[in-house]
Structure formats: structure tokens, C-alpha cells
Amino acid sequence: MAEAEEQETESLEESTDESEEEESEEEPKLKYERLSNGVTEILQKDAASCMTVHDKFLALGTHYGKVYLLDVQGNITQKFDVSPVKINQISLDESGEHMGVCSEDGKVQVFGLYSGEEFHETFDCPIKIIAVHPHFVKSSCKQFVTGGKKLLLFERSWMSRWKSSVLHEGEGNIRSVKWRGHLIAWANNMGVKIFDITSKQRITNVPRDDISLRPDMYPCSLCWKDSVTLIIGWGTSVKICSVKERHASEMRDLPSRYVEIVSQFETEFYISGLAPLCDQLVVLSYVKEVSEKTEREYCARPRLDIIQPLSETCEEISSDALTVRGFQENECRDYHLEYSEGESLFYIVSPRDIVVAKERDQDDHIDWLLEKKKYEEALMAAEISQKNIKRHKILDIGLAYINHLVEKGDYDIAARKCQKILGKNTALWECEVYKFKEIGQLKAISPYLPRGDPILKPLIYEMILHEFLESDYEGFATLIREWPGDLYNNSVIVQAVRDHLKKDSQNRTLLKTLAELYTYDKNYGNALEIYLTLRHKDVFQLIHKHNLFSSIKDKIVLLMDFDSEIKKVVEELEDRPELQHVYLHKLFKRDHHKGQRYHEKQISLYAEYDRPNLLPFLRDSTHCPLEKALEICQQRNFVEETVYLLSRMGNSRSALKMIMEELHDVDKAIEFAKEQDDGELWEDLILYSIDKPPFITGLLNNIGTHVDPILLIHRIKEGMEIPNLRDSLVKILQDYNLQILLREGCKKILVADSLSLLKKMHRTQMKGVLVDEENICESCLSPILPSDAAKPFSVVVFHCRHMFHKECLPVPSMSSPAQFCGICSAKHRGPGSAILEMKK
């Protein structure tokens, strides 16, 4: 039955442990480990009854009366057989050179660990406590106290004899004592007292709160936080007492010191031990719980809590349930909490186990973060404390973080973290790239690859470029723009792009990217051709940067497609006016108006590089400034262009004079006169030509259809020899005869057309005109047809479609018997006398 109950209790405890672990999300403040080595061997045969801690070693007392000195790892360094029964308490001075021991059989020993001085005494009652003076090593401080039924103070006199004095008695067994400086604090059945060893006065009495608890089962726990602050834990109550100096005016018969309780609060469980931790408290609690199945009370695992004391309450900072051996059988009095002030080590002592608690360091903090998969916080903590961590490496944490992100599917974040974590380690970079390749996430890591210091193998970059080329042209183009051309084998990538262009030859993204690759490879000709084909804005930058003006001479037509970039093209070609002229000329041929702002500039360019096209340009351009053009042509003595400009500006006589005086070309002068069709111009031409026989011959041959030849013939001087005069006169007569024939032919055609149109008009006017209720009389504006159809009526309709009641028209006179439409006659719109008359 007992075994069954024990198994049930264990299973309940295990389930409680699991639930607490599941619920715990806060990082523990302490870490725990069992004190092993020699301690394990001791506790297999014996049970721990008490322990005290020094900075250099530990002193462990057992139920079989043994005292062991241990190092901090639990190894036995010395053993003392003090008594055959339980060791109740061990006390050490601050130097660690003197030890006091008391046992259940009344024995008391105080001796030097490294000297021969010794005190032995056996009392007739169990001695529960012992405390040696903290400075016992000094000859003036050879004092210690023991406690059983009364509290005795032992002092060494000047003759090396020990004398004792009773400090207190009559309130039951002394259960606990703590000596700090000149103050001794002890607890008996009634409460806690503090004694000032200097003034030999008891300065306070702090009564016990819960007198229902047995003091032997729930002993008082005492600890000094400092030389004037005492912490008392008894049952579930905690009191923090401060020893203060009394003002001289208040002393009278009172002690020079008094105690003020600065904080008092209750805890959830029974207190087995106390220890200070900075401004906080470490509390070892004995826990009893009730089984839900059997409703019986059982001993649960003890708890070690860190609490923040307040004036009337406390705040729990952390709470840990401790799995100590045999906790199911232990009572509150079986647990002790000892601590080492120098290293913040806390020893949880139970009969079958000793557990060491210590503050967690940065390595422990990182362990917890990694366990909770808080890799980013772990990495940050390691970076901040990299000089203090011993068990962790920043790189290992970083790699674990990257793997964790990849497992979660956060590929972009994992890739971004590679920059910081991998740094300049090319081997790790290449390893991570291959990992990303295995999971098909090369695109994720591509933006973060190192591009300068360090540089990875070209194969790595080529592998990523091929990945983008297969699935994402835009991403591929972005990488080519962003990555320096020396990261990869340019010819390999060029060939891959050309292979893809065979499938999609018009893909602008690929073409533009290929042009950039050609530029990296200094193959500017191919790059320029692609840019021109694509009409890309970077073409001008490429031309200017690499001085490719000679390369664009045969590709200038492609620049015509840069409609929105005309200004930029002209500016880029400013240093190469011959190419500038070719471009503007081609642009003008394509559209006379696109480059109109540059027509003035083109006059000089044509005059310098392309005179044959200057005159056509002047004729076709409507935006060319004529004064500027005339100035340039006159400076360069361009006669034909000057003639054209003079005539276009209205100065035809000067133009004609220049033709005759500069060109001496009668045919061109006659042609010019014909174009102008101005009588005065012909007169000037005749006057200029009258004394020049060749000019007269030309005029006789061409003037017949524009000017009366008689005007010219009458002005010819008698006796002047004119070449081919007879032929010229015959031509004049033939031209005249031809004109007569043309006039007669035109007359016949005109008469025939007039007759035909007259007949057509007559037929049209003889047709009937529709008259209905919608028509109105243009004179009285009433309906043309009467509402009563039986009544007689008379309507006059003119051929102009205006209608009148006959009675509304004026009566024709004898002198003018014909009637006309008053409306059309008044507006002089032609005859309207023809009428249609309708009667009934």
C-alpha cells in the first residue's frame, strides 16, 4: 500500500514538473547542479544534517557524527569523527581557520584547522547551535556561543581559560543563531533576539507570528544581509529588520541601538532558508500539496524563489521547483540554504542531496535563448558579450540562426543575415550558396552576395545568373547592372543571353542586358547598335564616354527614332558638326517640322557641308529665318540661293537683276519672270535684254504666251543682228495661231455646256412641287392650304419654292405683267418669275 502511494505521488510530481516546464516561458535567473564527487559517496551511506560555506571550502556535517571538509567541486579534503550521533551545526570564522561543531549528544568542539588550539566540552543536553566570533582568529575575539536550552557565551580570558556566561534562557530551545560583527541574532520558541556583544545588551525581541507551528518542525531561518540588516523567515512570514543607532537624547536607560522592521510580508509556502542577492532575496521553500485523487497531503518538490521585497508585500522574480533526492520524505527542518557571499553561490542542503544554485552567466543566457529558438537575441547577446562568453562562438550561433530561418522558410531574412554572419569568409559563403541552390532559393541570396571584398569564385556568380536567366529576365538584368563585370566570365554569360535571344529575338530586356555585357567587354560597336535599335537613352552616354562618333556615322538614321531626345542628340553631337548636320538633314527629310528649332543652325551646316541641299532646304522649310539665310548666302556668294531668298522676301527686281548680271542666264531669268507673273518684271527684263541679241532671241522664243511680242519687237533697233530671228518669229506666229485655236475650242465647249445646263434647268423647273398642310404662305404666314377643303382657293408657287396665296401677291401692272418672288427679288437671289399656279 505504501509503495502504491509512493508511486502515485511520484507520478503526480512528474506531471506537475512537466506542466510547470511547459508554462515556463521566462528565462530562469539561476542554474543548478548537484554537488557530486565525494558528496555522492558520503550521502550513499550517510545523510547530511548541516553545512556551512566558506569562500575557500565547504564543511558538511552528517547524521552519523562526521564532519567533512570539501572543495567547491565536492571532493573530500579532510574528515573529522566528532560524535556517534547527528551533527547539529558547524560554524566557521571569516578566515576559515577555526571551526566550531556541536552535536545531538551535547558535545561542543572549537578548534583550529591549521593550529593546535582546541576547546572540548560535553553538556548534559543536546546542543542545537554554535557560532564562533567572525574574527575568532584575533586574540581579542576568542568568543563563541552555543545554544541548547539556554544561550551561552564562551570567552577566553587572559590566562587562556574559557569562561561562560548565560545570555538568555527560559524560552525553550535555541534553534538558530547568526553572528555578524558585534551582533548576535538567535531564535527560540518565542521569537528572535539580537544581542550587542560590545555593550553586552540585548537590543530587541521580534516575536514569532504563527505560534501554531511547531518550532522544531518549522525552525526559524536567519541571515545577515549586511552588518545592520537581519532577515528573518519563520513559517510563511518574512521580516527585514534594520539595526539603528539611538539618538543620545533618547537613550536614558535604553540600549544604544534599536531595531526597525522595514519590510514584512507573507509567502505562499513554508520557509526553510533565506539568503540575500543584491537587493533581492533568495528563499528556499518547503511545499506541501494535496493529491486530487486521494485528497491526501504529500511533500512536493522544494522551491527556490527570487523575490523583490517591498514594504508590505513582495514581487516574485523567478521560481524554480527543485528535484532533490528523497524530497517526498523530507520535512521543512530537513532543508537548509547556505550561501557564499563572494561568488553568489547558493547551496540547497537536504539529507540525501546537495544542489548548488548559481547566477546564470552570459553563456547560460545564450543557451536558454537557443533552446527557445530565439536565435537573433542569442546572436545579439553573444556580440555584446563576446569578451565574456566562453562556451559559445558568434559564428556558430549565426550559422544555427541561418539554418533555423531556412527551416522556417524565411529565405530572404536568412540570406540577408548571411552578410553579417559570414562576413569575409569565402568558404562559408560558397557553402551557403550551394545550400540555397539545393532548396531552389538562389534568387533569395543573390542580392546579398559579396561583390568586392571578398570575391567568390566566378562559378558562384554564373550559377546565379543562369538561374535568373531561366526564369526572370528582369531580375537577370538587375544583377548585370549591379554586379561588376569582373565577378564572372563575361563571354559565358554573353553566349547564354544570345542563346535565349534565338528563342525571343525581340525581348527588349535581354537586348538591353546584352548591350551592357558588350560594354563590359569593350565591344562598343555591338553595344551601340543595340542601344540605337532600342532607342535607349544611354546611347548618348556610351557615345560620349567612349568617343564612338566615328561608329555612328553609318547608323545615324537610327537616331531618328529618338523623337523625344532630339535636343539631347544635337547637344551630344555639338563637337562633331558634320555628324550633327547628317542627323538634322535626315530628321528634316523625315519630317519638316520636328527639328524646326534647329533650322537656323542648319543654314550654316548646309552652307558648310552640303551646299547642293541648301536650296531645297530653303524652299521646303517654313521655319527658316530668311534674313539670317540671306546674310549667310551673300557672305558666301551663293547666287542661286540669294536669288531665291530675295524673291521670297518680295524683292523680285533685285533677284532678277542678280540672275541677269551674275548668272547671265536668260532662260533662268525668263523662268523667274514666269514664276513671278509680274508685268513690271517683264518690262525690266525687256529693258535689260534690248541691247543684247542673245537675250532678245531667248525672249522671242518664250515671251509669246506671257507678254505681247509686239512690245518687244517695236523696241528692237533697226539694223541689229539677232541670231535665229526668223525661227523666233515663226515660233511667235505658231504660238499665236495655237492660242486662237485654243480659244475657239474653248468657246465651242462653253456653248455646248451652257445649252446642256439650260435644258437641265428647264426640265427641273417643269417638275411638280409638293404642297401640303405643313407649308405656309410667305406673306401672311398662315397655312397655304385652307382647313376646309371644299372651299375654292388659289396658290402661287415660285420655282424658288416660296409659296403665296394668290390674293396675298400684288396685282401685276400693265408695264410689268410678270410676277416675281418678293423674297428672292428683295435679296437679289436671281430670277423667280417662273410660277406654278394651283387653283380649285
TrEMBL record:
GO cellular component, one term: late endosome membrane
Gene3D superfamilies (UniProt xref): Tetratricopeptide repeat domain, YVTN repeat-like/Quinoprotein amine dehydrogenase
Per-repeat ranges for CHCR: 554-698
Chief site of localization: cytoplasm
Organism expressing this protein natively: Canis lupus familiaris
Membrane topology term: Peripheral membrane protein
UniProt protein name: Vacuolar protein sorting-associated protein 41 homolog
Family, per entry: Belongs to the VPS41 family.
The keyword Kinase appears for this protein: no
Entry keywords, A to Z: Autophagy, Cytoplasm, Cytoplasmic vesicle, Endosome, Golgi apparatus, Lysosome, Membrane, Metal-binding, Protein transport, Transport, Zinc, Zinc-finger
PROSITE patterns with a match to the protein in the record: CHCR (PS50236), ZF_RING_2 (PS50089)
GO term, biological process aspect, one: endosome to lysosome transport
InterPro entries attached to this UniProt entry: Beta-prop_Vps41, Clathrin_H-chain/VPS_repeat, TPR-like_helical_dom_sf, Vps41, Vps41/Vps8, WD40/YVTN_repeat-like_dom_sf, WD40_repeat_dom_sf, Znf_RING
